[in-house]
Amino acid sequence: MSFAGKTVLITGASRGIGKSIALRLAREGANVVVAAKSVEENPKLGGTIFSAAQEIEAAGGQALAVACDIRFEEQIAQAVDQTLARFGSIDVLVNNASAISLTTTEQTEAKRFDLMHDVNVRGTFLMTKACIPHLRKSSNPHILTLSPPINLDPKWFEKHVAYTISKYNMSLMTMGWAKELEKDRIAANALWPRTTIDTAAVRNLLGGQMLVNMSRKPEILADAAYYILRRSSTQCTGNLFVDEQVFAQEGITDLSHYSVIPGAKLYTDLFLD
Questions:
Q1: pLDDT value of position 43
Q2: pTM of the prediction?
Q3: Number of domains in the chain
Q4: For residue 115, which of 48, 69, 63 has the smallest C-alpha distance?
Q5: Whole-angstrom Cα distance, residue 65 to residue 67?
Q6: Domain-embedded: residue 38
Q7: Intervals of the chain under pLDDT 70
Q8: Contact (CB, 8 A) for 197 and 217
């Protein structure tokens, strides 16, 4: 599929993985909607919807910056309305926005539990629901959700059960949408990295510079997303992809240039053995 003139709505696209996917598709000529909360820059996180939009246009795409907190249904509706008013269609939805707290049950406050489920589960569900009527009109519609393969080994629940079930719910919804929307030719797939990715969450919350040095760049997921989204929506649906699997299917085996430090030992991401 050519992305020229196609409209891609990406949640959480002001920085990190979401922005990398946005820039990759912009280079292919896509219209990209940056739907995120960041209207003012956080010094620790960097980036806003406006700075991301500028980068997208510099990369060759058309951009629309939309302030949207997907916890709120009215903001989702406004984001979709603004997208249609500017570009007239929605061809791809990337559910990238996510909240994380790697805390045990006793450590997880109710507000933190609610945040993860309101963003990861409810927000992803409601954004997808709002986009479906418009995706139906596309020639090659895709929903891509950043969530992991479902690994039921208890070790992935032991230390952060609230986060785990929120991410697995995203994957379960993906599997459900693939079947539910099959008749509409709308593909639904998930994508997850084999290794940790150099993002603000890794730098500030998870492992700092030590973990960054054992990570890959966000561009690996951007390229994997590109390969998935250019496939036929009737032929590629219902998959919970790991990025390395996507590259293998494309005949690409050398991924060394994605490492933050070439040749360094890489740290396997959550939910993967």
A1: 74
A2: 0.97
A3: 1
A4: 69
A5: 7
A6: yes
A7: none
A8: yes
In 3D space, the residue among 271, 273, 16, 241 whose CA is nearest the CA of residue 160 turns out to be 271
Question: How many Å from the N-terminal Cα to the C-terminal Cα in the chain?
Answer: 33
Residue 114, token pair as written in the block: 């609610």
Contact 8, 2 (CB under 8 A): no
Helix (H), strand (E) at residue 210: helix 208-212
Residues near 23 by Cβ (< 8 Å), separated by ≥ 6?
55, 56, 59, 222
266 within some domain: no
Distance, in Å, from the CA atom of 249 to the CA atom of 233, rounded to the nearest integer, reads: 16
Pairing relation of β-strands 62-67 and 187-192? unpaired
Q: Which DSSP string do the residues of 226-237 spell out, in sequence order?
A: HHHHTS-TTTS-
pLDDT at 84: 98
Residue 83 inside a domain? The answer is: yes
Beta sheet of 31-36, edge-to-edge order: 62-67, 31-36, 7-11, 92-95, 142-146, 187-192, 240-242
Find the catalytic residue in 163, 168, 226, 258: 163
Residues 6 or more apart whose CB falls under 8 angstroms from that of 266 comprise 194, 195, 196, 214, 215, 216, 259
Angle at 118 between CA 114 and CA 119, to 5 degrees: 120
Note whether residue 272 is domain-resident: no
CATH number of the domain bearing residue 124: 3.40.50.720
d(CA 161, CA 120): 14
Token pair belonging to 161: 């059960």
Based on the residue annotation, tell me whether 267 is a catalytic residue of this protein.
no
State which residues form the domain around 220: 7-258
